[in-house]
Amino acid sequence: MSQSVSQPHPSRRLLIPALGNVYAPLHELAETVLRVVAGLALVVHGAGKISEPFGSVEMVEGLGFYPGVFWSPLLAATEFFGGMLIAVGLLTRPAAFAAMIVLLVTVWFHWITLGQGYMGAEKSILWAAIFFFFAIRGANGHSVDARLGREV
């Protein structure tokens, strides 16, 4: 089901009320741009992994995910195909949830395993938050989910 454009909360008044006429029609477009860019960025990130799906076996086992021959192709598919699904807005919630989990693992990896703290995990935190948004919100009217009239 497509979601309607949300209006500003009645208790929130714009400093320049006329800007409401600019913001309202661009609300859904801004959300769509964020979803498409996030999905395509995930596709690009996963492209190298999908061409060599067992190339990350040692890396995932180094993070404690055994057997690596299972987790490495799953990581590649989540990034590459999940990114495609997010970009077009098909099965958006489950794809975004899977991407969020992958990004939370990278937060752990950079912050704890490599000892880089916040500075090392910052990008992963931002990406995990973006995918959390779409896991909860789903896609909007500019998506395959909306065209099908169904979403998870």
Automatic annotation (TrEMBL):
Superkingdom classification of source: Bacteria
UniProt keyword list: Cell membrane, Membrane, Transmembrane, Transmembrane helix
Keyword Membrane appears in the UniProt entry: yes
Keyword Transmembrane recorded: yes
Predominant subcellular localization, coarse grouping: membrane
Signal peptide: none
Residue intervals passing through the bilayer: 69-88, 95-112, 124-140
Membrane topology: Multi-pass membrane protein
Database matches in InterPro entries: DoxX, DoxX-like_oxidoreductase
Subcellular location: Cell membrane
Similarity comment: family membership: Belongs to the DoxX family.
PANTHER family, A to Z: INNER MEMBRANE PROTEIN YPHA-RELATED, OXIDOREDUCTASE CATD-RELATED
Name of the protein in question: DoxX family protein
Organism classification: Bacteria, Pseudomonadati, Pseudomonadota, Alphaproteobacteria, Hyphomicrobiales
